[in-house]
């Protein structure tokens, strides 16, 4: 029997003696069967010693799993390059998706902060501690003591009266008020008493703590926004003159399109010349601030009608004491907003002409928000013409009730 020592000698080149002779020379030769058996046995022993364990044949179920794994590995090998490419290509998309989500989260946070700041501003302005009413839009119609007939012409056309006015406010969140101050700091004069009597009859006024005067329109605008934001929490605040025709349904539908946008300033944007010559209409005493003679104003909404969102109204209210006033109130408002991150919306439907202009546009399916004559900065002879404009360019009484806000 072959021993371990004999096997090692064979590997080292030693051969055990043999009794066979061939050509006078002794030859050593392994018996073939015994050598193979010994080699197999020794391999098994050495393998056992080095691994420390004996392999077990897999069960039929394990064989199935192994075959499946091999098939998957083979498939991955065949399509490995394609899978890698798909992973590489999808990674930038995933990154961009995460960036987009982060950007949206930041925007939401900014809106929340802006909303909190606005609510804080409203709380500060509400010095009387009275409850603030919710609304979609508050429309302030700028008027004067001498404009009773103008106000009546609006009440007979596009401004609802009595129960309809209250219903519009309660059901649609649309508030309309004629805006006027006092005749003197103390008030109580004949002009003030006339307004008090009219208010008792119509209940559609908002009285400001402000002394009326043509050259005080910038101050009146500032007081107007400060006052209404302390009474109504609305999405938008609108100022319109009492010689302008308005389609309420189109107005609120237009505003609703911009409801999701923060810091919104809507109107017909213009840039007129800065008039330095004394004695002319719209003379600007501080013309030198706008550069050389002949320069134009920055873009701003024309004063006949414009709208601002509540965050801008809150800004005006909070900063009212330090907001500079120019000669023209629309320029003043534009100057308060020009340095802010504001969305200027140039809405041309808010400055249509009177018939036939607004009539032609309506026939084409483009109902105007507001109509007036540029030459008169309002409807020329509005008391006499308001009904004609309403008849030709009005949207119909039911439009405002069907408007989607």
From TrEMBL:
<keyword id="KW-0464">Manganese</keyword>
<keyword id="KW-0472">Membrane</keyword>
<dbReference type="Pfam" id="PF13334">
    <property type="entry name" value="DUF4094"/>
</dbReference>
<keyword id="KW-0808">Transferase</keyword>
<keyword id="KW-1133">Transmembrane helix</keyword>
<feature type="coiled-coil region">
    <location>
        <begin position="99"/>
        <end position="126"/>
    </location>
</feature>
<feature type="domain" description="DUF4094">
    <location>
        <begin position="33"/>
        <end position="125"/>
    </location>
</feature>
<dbReference type="GO" id="GO:0000139">
    <property type="term" value="C:Golgi membrane"/>
</dbReference>
<dbReference type="InterPro" id="IPR002659">
    <property type="entry name" value="Glyco_trans_31"/>
</dbReference>
<protein>
    <recommendedName>
        <fullName>Hexosyltransferase</fullName>
        <ecNumber>2.4.1.-</ecNumber>
    </recommendedName>
</protein>
<feature type="transmembrane region" description="Helical">
    <location>
        <begin position="35"/>
        <end position="56"/>
    </location>
</feature>
<keyword id="KW-0735">Signal-anchor</keyword>
<keyword id="KW-0328">Glycosyltransferase</keyword>
<dbReference type="GO" id="GO:0008378">
    <property type="term" value="F:galactosyltransferase activity"/>
</dbReference>
<comment type="similarity">
    <text>Belongs to the glycosyltransferase 31 family.</text>
</comment>
<comment type="pathway">
    <text>Protein modification; protein glycosylation.</text>
</comment>
<keyword id="KW-0175">Coiled coil</keyword>
<keyword id="KW-0333">Golgi apparatus</keyword>
<dbReference type="Pfam" id="PF01762">
    <property type="entry name" value="Galactosyl_T"/>
</dbReference>
<keyword id="KW-0812">Transmembrane</keyword>
<dbReference type="InterPro" id="IPR025298">
    <property type="entry name" value="DUF4094"/>
</dbReference>
